[in-house]
Design a protein that fits this description.
alpha/beta; 4-stranded parallel sheet; 6 helices; 33% helix
């Protein structure tokens, strides 16, 4: 969950927190109840294009701008109840590979596409948001905004040149593809005043890493608050030269 005291204190305006089933997101609802008017929870399933389209229409109609997009949804698997992360070529299953790509690559890319018009900070201010099915929303963007930012949560194992161990096939290739998408979108989006980066958070104490934490060296398993604060510091130090790049939680550039 991408929340910390720093997020809630420093973020101006409204935070839109998305999940598949808002009514079942107990911890998220507790945060929203403690910060009325600051946090709004909206439904989003990144595997469902109609869900992405519906979210973009809601944000366009209700908020008419997006200043920061954090694509943090992702799956890895536990190696027991799921095929991934696969240790060998023989362990790859088509359905799991397709699901991993849908969540880790296709979803973030399509969500960025849907919200990109609302993140324009240079050039024309009159934009259209396409909600699919013939639905469009006309928006007049405010002027005088700093560059908007897209953050794609990646992983060091997505680095092709750094891969010396093998294994984790679908997760590795999904993050490598996300890095390529980040690089390519960066070249285009900077022309509209939007920056984008891929960030490696390090091994953080979340459900995704839990099945593998016993192998993490002492001091290298990061609390969520630590990771979020570090990633926000990297984002806050960004400049135009960083867009399309791949960095770790400490701001160190990583090889693609």
């Amino acid at each position: 969950m991408f929340f910390s005291s720093k997020v809630l204190k420093q973020m101006q305006g409204k935070i839109i927190a998305c999940c598949r089933s808002p009514s079942e997101a107990q911890e998220l609802n507790e945060i929203a109840s403690r910060h009325p008017g600051k946090v709004q929870i909206l439904p989003l399933d990144v595997e469902d294009q109609s869900s992405i389209d519906a979210l973009s229409v809601t944000i366009a109609r209700d908020h008419r701008r997006v200043d920061g997009l954090f694509n943090v949804a992702g799956i890895l698997g536990d190696g027991r109840s799921t095929p991934g992360p696969e240790r060998s070529l023989a362990g790859i299953e088509r359905d799991w590979m397709e699901k991993t790509l849908a969540v880790n690559v296709v979803g973030p890319t399509m969500l960025t596409k849907a919200l990109a018009p609302l993140m324009r900070t240079s050039g024309r201010r009159a934009v259209k948001v396409d909600g699919g099915g013939g639905t469009t929303v006309d928006v007049e963007l405010p002027g005088g905004r700093p560059p908007a930012v897209v953050v794609n949560l990646s992983a060091r194992v997505g680095s092709i040149s750094d891969n010396q161990l093998g294994g984790w096939y679908t997760y590795r290739l999904s993050k490598a593809a996300l890095n390529q998408a980040t690089r390519t979108m960066g070249l285009e989006l900077k022309r509209q005043g939007t920056w984008i980066v891929a960030l490696h958070p390090g091994t953080t104490d979340t459900d995704l890493s839990r099945p593998f934490q016993r192998n993490v060296k002492k001091g290298r398993l990061f609390p969520v608050d630590f990771t979020v604060d570090k990633l926000l510091s990297v984002v806050e130090s960004m400049g135009d030269r960083n867009t399309g790049g791949f960095y770790d939680w400490a701001g160190k550039a990583l090889p693609f």
